[in-house]
């Protein structure tokens, strides 16, 4: 690929994706669009490409890039904080940003890979498969369902065009510190524990998440450009891992023995269990995650500590 557009490229997943693309395609022209609402310039300190500081939901992409045709577009721009409950803001910025990307990409049938979310599955305790009926429990999840709906509608009207959603589960890894309270629970618990505090989790600590390393997320996102056709693919480790197990893994990696402190859960929309069915992803994209949760957490701690 010679020309690549990444929206949301200063954010957590987006910046890891940009730097991976830069390594994979050192001669490519990479353009990042980001307004820094969910990003930080420090994530791109080694980036060598072009940067457009703009809100993609309000940017005229055809005018901005009138002299440039991209070989692929990776759409990561989104309001990612699930505790933001302003329905108009969440839906407008997330959905209209994607609509603008699709309206621009359709001109040259540019392949689009976009960030979907496991939040679309809702709060059921079940193995989560791509064909399940959406059950969004908050406005963030609802906005992501609309992205999937838009992608399906555009793809049905343009059968030769490729629009691929990557349904991210609970991602953790480098470049997420700027997200503060919206960072992964693995990072938040790590910060508590290195400060000598007991890690705080909801009562019981047996709620399980499909934690997936950002390294695997980036690998799959890049690979999704080669998907056989338009569609949505789960992106998880395929292993549900409890918060008690996260604390155990962090204690092992840090050489500590801190006991959890259990607190009440105030969120009605909280997902008690996420678990990705990776069958379709493995079948169509030949992808299996490299990092299982315990090993991935140890790897993350080494990176955080500069090892």
Can you offer a commentary on this structure?
With 307 residues, this protein is an alpha/beta fold. The protein contains 9 helices and 12 strands.
Percent in strands: 15-25%
* Cα end-to-end separation: 33 Å
Main β-sheet, in a few words?
Answer: 7 strands, parallel
Helix content: 25-40%
Q: What top-tier CATH class of the largest domain fits best?
A: Alpha Beta
List the helices and strands in order.
EHEEHEHEHEEHEEHEEHEHH
Total domains:
2
- Unreliable stretches covering 5 or more consecutive residues: none
CATH topology of the largest domain: Rossmann fold
Which features characterize this protein?
Rossmann fold; 307 residues; 12 strands; 2 domains; globular; alpha/beta
Compact overview of the structure:
With 307 residues, the protein is of the alpha/beta class.
């Amino acid at each position: 690929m010679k020309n690549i557009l990444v929206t949301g490229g200063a954010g957590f997943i987006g910046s890891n994706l940009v730097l991976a693309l830069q390594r994979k395609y050192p001669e490519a022209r990479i353009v990042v669009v980001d307004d820094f609402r969910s990003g930080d310039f420090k994530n791109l300190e080694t980036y060598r490409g072009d940067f457009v500081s703009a809100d993609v939901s309000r940017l005229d992409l055809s005018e901005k890039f009138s002299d440039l045709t991209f070989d692929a577009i990776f759409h990561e721009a989104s309001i990612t904080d699930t505790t933001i409950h302003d329905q108009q803001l969440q839906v407008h910025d997330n959905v209209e940003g994607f609509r603008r990307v699709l309206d621009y990409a359709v001109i040259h049938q540019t392949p689009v890979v976009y960030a979907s979310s496991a939040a679309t599955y809702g709060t059921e305790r079940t193995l989560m498969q791509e064909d399940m009926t959406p059950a969004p429990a908050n406005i963030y999840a609802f906005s992501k369902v609309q992205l999937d709906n838009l992608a399906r509608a555009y793809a049905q009207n343009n059968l030769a065009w490729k629009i691929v959603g990557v349904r991210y589960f609970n991602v953790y890894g480098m470049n997420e510190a700027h997200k503060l309270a919206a960072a992964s629970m693995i990072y938040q618990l790590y910060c508590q524990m290195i400060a000598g505090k007991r890690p705080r989790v909801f009562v019981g600590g047996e709620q399980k998440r499909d934690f997936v390393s950002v390294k695997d997320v980036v690998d799959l996102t890049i690979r999704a450009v080669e998907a056989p056709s338009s569609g949505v693919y789960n992106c998880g480790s395929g292993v549900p891992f409890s918060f008690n197990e996260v604390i155990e893994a962090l204690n092992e990696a840090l050489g500590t023995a801190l006991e959890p402190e259990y607190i009440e859960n105030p969120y009605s929309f909280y997902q008690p269990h996420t678990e990705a069915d990776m069958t379709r992803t493995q079948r169509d994209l030949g992808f299996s995650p490299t990092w299982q949760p315990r090993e991935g957490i140890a790897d993350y701690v080494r990176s955080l500590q500069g090892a």
